[in-house]
């Protein structure tokens, strides 16, 4: 077989760049600079080989299939798995950690909430009035979504990332369906709440972007499962106490777990390795940003409710939401500065030798 | 700035298998690999450029293929790739595994009175 042209004598001056080539090079700009420096000319040459028709070169476009393939390559190179420049590896690790932490918090919070609802149904008649809002098909879908979220976390940690992605999409779909139904009922803002879009949507996006074919398996699966179980137990305890007190002011366990966890990472000598990891620091900074943005929306709503004299306890909720937002912002800012320093230590990104 | 590569053994995807097969005969440049894979599969598999370089990156990172030489043809850069000894071994192992699967499937189908064509024809 001799499908390639070995005639090196044919080398001549560079051809004039056609519109098709310009368009293709524009598509290639999705790739990181260090990769383009090494590969752009080579890829353009492969794409344009045997495309000699002047009409084709003037009016054609790279096509959706080629564009999608370059986009997938861009994700794999920007969020490197097991090979690549240190910064690309750190970003890849950060995105994968956001997926893991987000799924852990989502699954733990969901299971804990379901447990609290079950306890409420077993023996808290004074809470029965509040349960009315949860009736209908939404209850079943909500439970199913929580099961799927928990399944996605366990599947990801135990190396079944294909199943994890399907389960995460199913869980996200369940949450969106409930919110959409609420929007149809007149509550249009429920569809765009930050908790769904940021605390659930972003980790699902990170799951798909970060866990590509080259991504390494999750390290220390037993520790991750322990973390998920601890989060779930802590959240369930907090929810149950709050139900017992029938308190209108409810703290957000995930936010305080984040604040305490980030504080420990920044201070504890036992977590020095995590503190030295640009990927970990960036992941915690991203989580802090997501929690802060969600907190801002919660605070805004709480403040709106507190101005309504018919709603009791909203003032306390507003103060707590503000405190949680400030705490997550402070922790996120501190770890964000540490992340920037850690990335600077990695130096500029250059192509492979 | 260091470039880090951790060699992890993983099964060959069909695309990686086909690219290694194309490189088994001689070093090829990117377009020749695309063309060769098309010929090997009767155009069933048509590699886009983005997909090809994803596969090549993986093969090079895993030590199964390596860069051979650069040439300039009609003003454009051509980089040739060649299979390594490790890559040839991996391709051989994968070919044996697939052949064993084919043998088992063929025997089972014969028990049902079917005679599959190994050459790729219909049953």
Structure description:
The complex is a heterodimer of chains A (353) and B (123). By secondary structure, chain A is mainly α. Chain A has 3 domains: 16-77, no CATH class; 95-247, no CATH class; 249-353. Chain A has helices at residues 19-28, 33-48, 54-59, 64-78, 86-123, 128-131, 137-157, 161-184, 194-210, 221-245, 253-267, 272-275, 278-306, 314-346, and one strand at 83-85. The longest helix of chain A has 38 residues, at 86-123. Chain A is globular, with a radius of gyration of 25 Å. Chain B is of the alpha+beta class and 123 residues long. Chain B has a single domain (14-111), classed as Orthogonal Bundle (Arc Repressor Mutant, subunit A), CATH 1.10.10.10. Chain B has a 3-stranded antiparallel β-sheet with strand order 2-4-3. Chain A binds chain B through residues 1-5, 7-8, 10-15, 39, 41-50, 65-66, 68-73, 76-77, 82-86, 89, 213-214, 216, 346-353, and chain B through 1-6, 8, 13, 25-26, 28-32, 34-36, 39, 48-54, 57-58, 61, 71-80.
Keywords:
heterodimer; A: 353 residues; mainly alpha; 3 domains; 14 helices; globular; disordered N terminus; B: 123 residues; alpha+beta; Arc Repressor Mutant, subunit A; 3-stranded antiparallel beta sheet; elongated; disordered C terminus
Indicate the topology.
The complex is a heterodimer of chains A (353) and B (123).
Chain A: H1 19-28, H2 33-48, H3 54-59, H4 64-78, E1 83-85, H5 86-123, H6 128-131, H7 137-157, H8 161-184, H9 194-210, H10 221-245, H11 253-267, H12 272-275, H13 278-306, H14 314-346
Helix pairs in contact in A: 1-2, 5-7, 5-9, 5-10, 5-13, 7-8, 8-9, 9-13, 11-13, 11-14, 13-14
Chain B: E1 3-5, H1 14-25, E2 28-29, H2 30-40, H3 49-61, E3 65-73, E4 76-83, H4 85-111
Structural class of chain B: alpha+beta
How many DSSP H or I helices of chain B? 4
Q: Sheet bearing the most strands of chain B, described? A: 3 strands, antiparallel
- In CATH, the architecture of chain B is Orthogonal Bundle
Number of domains of chain B: 1
Query: Which series of helices and strands of chain A comes N to C?
Result: HHHHEHHHHHHHHHH
What is the strand content of chain A?
under 5%
Give the H and E element order of chain B. Answer: EHEHHEEH
**What oligomerization state is this entry in?**
heterodimer
What's the name of the CATH homologous superfamily of chain B? Winged helix-like DNA-binding domain superfamily/Winged helix DNA-binding domain
CATH topology term of chain B? Arc Repressor Mutant, subunit A
